Amino acid sequence: MSKYLPISEHLRSLPLSQSCESFTFAALEKVLGADLPSTARVDRPWWANTLQSNHAKAWMSAGWKVHQIDLKGQTVTFARASQAAPTASRGSDVYRRVTEFFEQLPGEQTQVALLFQELEAVMGRPLPKTAFRDRTWWANAKEYSPSRDWLAAGWKLESVFLPSAIAVFRRKQAATLESVRACVKRFLGEDHAGPVPDPHRAAEWISLCRRIGWYFEGTVLFERCGIVFASLGDDAQASVEEDYAICRRELDRYKAVPLANAASRTGRS
User: What strands, in cross-sheet order, belong to the sheet with 166-171?
Assistant: First the structure.
């Protein structure tokens, strides 16, 4: 937590009468004395109030929470924990925070992949045990929370990966994973009708592939789509190159295991 300690110290120094503090990302970097990681500028879950991340521990240990994040405007507002999310008296009130989270996402964002712990941070409470083992809990049903709450915000659960504890949501009518599959088929010569994303959308898809373990698809998108990622900003370019490097490494690692086993069976070294 040492890198983010200046944030904790700054928030602790504020008078008790002050309930919120807003920063541009540039101003927060001055407090920090270092650049924010590129992920912080493009990935809303990086700002989740969760003790699983060292940067969030810095502000949470000081008694503060991220109250509002504006990725487009590059600003963040912290609020004292007692002010940021009042305790709900009913379960449905807790889940309504899910609606607020999705409503605040930028209009141009069509998908978001959340770790279960990140969704818990949005809700302000743990998910029920059923959510970790039963896919039906995640059904897009208007009759029940929390699905009715993300549906009310214009979003749908697209896929849930129980072993990886990741939920992928998309805006209604924005079938992201289907688009990724069709795009990959196009680049592999199987379906010439598949979509061709622009650099920003391709970068989003590669990041999604990296997060949900679609390492093959992420590698194909980067290597074969013919998109000039140099047209992105420096931070976005560095981020997509990092996502690709992870996809490539994991894909090679998975391929190496059966090859090694085959070599041992044939007596090859």
Answer: 111-115, 166-171, 155-161
245 vs 191, residue with greater confidence = 245
Both tokens assigned to 168: 């992928």
| pLDDT band with cut points at 50, 70 and 90 for residue 22 | very high
What would the two tokens of residue 73 be?
Answer: 């405007």
The domains of the chain are located at: 2-84, 87-173, 175-258
Name the one residue in this structure whose structure tokens are 């997509």.
240
pTM: 0.41
Start-end of H helices in the chain: 5-13, 25-32, 38-42, 54-61, 81-84, 91-103, 116-123, 147-152, 176-187, 199-212, 215-224, 234-266
Q: Integer distance in angstroms from the first to the last C-alpha of the chain? A: 44
Q: Is the pLDDT of residue 209 over 50?
A: yes
Looking at residue 76, what is its pLDDT?
Answer: 93
Compute how many other C-beta atoms are within 10 angstroms of the C-beta atom of residue 129.
9
